[in-house]
Design brief:
Pathway: Amino-acid biosynthesis; L-tyrosine biosynthesis; (4-hydroxyphenyl)pyruvate from prephenate (NAD(+) route): step 1/1. The protein has 374 residues and is of the alpha/beta class. Among the domains are: 161 residues, Rossmann fold (3-Layer(aba) Sandwich), CATH 3.40.50.720; 68 residues, ACT domain (Alpha-Beta Plaits, 2-Layer Sandwich). Helices cover 45% and strands 15% of the residues. Bound molecules: 1,4-dihydronicotinamide adenine dinucleotide and 3-(4-hydroxy-phenyl)pyruvic acid.
Length: 374
């Protein structure tokens, strides 16, 4: 594709988006900017008109009801089933999908209501941000991300939602609702609780302690900025699977607390109760094993990269100049992370490259006058 061109879409409009927050507006932006007729609805008129102003589509009118082909429900999980049911009834020839982060709860509620589910396809794009609302939406939110389809709906309905996911740049994955929810507890919902708990410990921390915070704390707490209302709804809807993981985590935590209690009582390593230091080491080593299992870029296998850290003056154009120099050195940048010095007008760009390109890149950047941090 040439620069500035946009990929054609196979999804046929009108597509109705109900709930024009982060997810719904991102769906609308991606489709509307590529010519699909998107009609928007939100119980908050401010959210709906803001989504319109951002370019995500046009406000729905009663006249649109007859010809809507696809409805995307993007409201909090606890009200998703009610909205899906209302949309199935209001648009008798449309396929209806939802993007709620929890699938079993929604499906159970729909089944209990006795509604005909042939036109309903439960789905969940595994893409999001720690921000909510239409203003946080981005059209490429879903690019390269898994989009789970939970196996409900007739084949034509499933195809429509699979096509939507593909049009938005996502990778469709089929999984049943219970399997999805157990997976989410482990890879999304418990990490959210853990991030919130660690960040919550900081609320009374002395300023002097916080001024020492480094990238490790920022990495672990990024998602602690998430919306409490949305996450209460997600955690309550997936309470069983989340609780199961938290109980296991509590046992792990208790083992570390006991081991450190022994270390605290000791006068040196030789007097620490047998096994305590091993418990601490095993905890960190298990973490090494777990993190190595997280897939790498583009869903490929986890890779070890060489990190080259470069000091970047905090001035316009400096980061762009560095990236251009990396390109000129013929090295592919696998990842980039910026850290900021708390006291100096200087940033640190941590550039991840393939291990066998590290020495070459360091030499090339040094030759171009960049200061490298060891
Ligand atoms: N935030 C994230 O990163 C992700 C969220 N999801 C799921 O997407 C759904 C939406 O989440 P966000 O967009 O983040 O939330 P959001 O808070 O940004 O937007 C939700 C919108 O739904 C509207 N709404 C609430 N009740 C409504 C109703 N009865 N009818 C019409 N509109 C209504 C709200 O006014 C709000 O604008 C949730 O089910 C969430 O679990 C899925 C993937 C990622
Ligand atoms: O910010 C992140 O890393 C996320 O993982 C966001 C996210 C939040 C909720 C979902 O249901 C899916 C994705």
């Amino acid at each position: 594709m040439t620069e500035g061109s946009v990929a054609p879409v196979a999804t046929r409009g009108p597509v109705r988006v109900v709930g024009t927050g982060l997810l719904g507006t991102s769906v609308g932006l991606s489709l509307a900017t590529r010519g699909v007729d998107v009609v928007l609805h939100d119980s908050s008129r401010t959210a709906m008109y803001l989504a319109r102003d951002l370019g995500a589509g046009r406000p729905a009118t009663p006249d649109d009801d007859a010809d809507v082909r696809l409805v995307v429900v993007a409201v909090p999980p606890d009200i998703t089933a009610d909205v899906v049911r209302a949309e199935l009834a209001a648009h008798p020839s449309a396929v209806v999908t939802d993007v709620a982060s929890v699938k079993g709860y929604v499906l159970d509620e729909l089944r209990a209501s006795g509604v005909d589910l042939r036109r309903y396809v439960g789905s969940h794009p595994m893409a999001g941000r720690e921000l909510s609302g239409p203003a946080a939406a981005v059209p490429d939110l879903f690019v390269g991300r898994p989009w789970v389809l939970t196996g409900t709906g007739e084949p034509d309905a499933v195809l429509a939602v699979r096509t939507l996911a593909t049009d938005l740049g996502a990778v469709p994955v089929t999984m049943d609702a219970a399997e999805h929810d157990a997976a989410m507890a482990l890879v999304s919902h418990v990490p959210q609780v853990a991030a919130s708990l660690v960040a919550g410990r900081l609320t009374d921390a002395p300023d002097a302690a916080l001024s020492l915070a480094g990238q490790g704390l920022r990495d672990v707490t990024r998602i602690a900025s998430s919306d409490p209302r949305l996450w209460t709804s997600i955690l309550a809807a997936n309470a069983g699977p989340v609780r199961d993981v938290l109980v296991a985590l509590r046992a792990d935590l208790d083992r570390v607390i006991d081991a450190l209690g022994h270390a605290d009582l000791a006068t040196g390593p030789e007097t620490v109760a047998a096994g305590a230091l091993g418990t601490v080491a095993t905890t960190i080593a298990h973490g090494n094993t777990g993190v190595a299992r997280i897939p790498g870029k583009h869903g490929g296998a986890h890779r070890e990269y060489r990190v080259v850290t470069v000091l970047v003056p905090d001035a316009p154009g400096e980061l762009a100049r560095l990236l251009a120099d990396v390109g000129d050195a013929g090295v592919n940048l696998e990842d980039l992370r910026m850290e900021h010095s708390p006291r100096h007008p200087m940033g640190m760009a941590a550039i991840s490259v393939l291990p066998d390109r590290g020495d070459h890149l360091e030499n090339e950047l040094a030759a171009r006058g960049w200061r490298l941090a060891s």
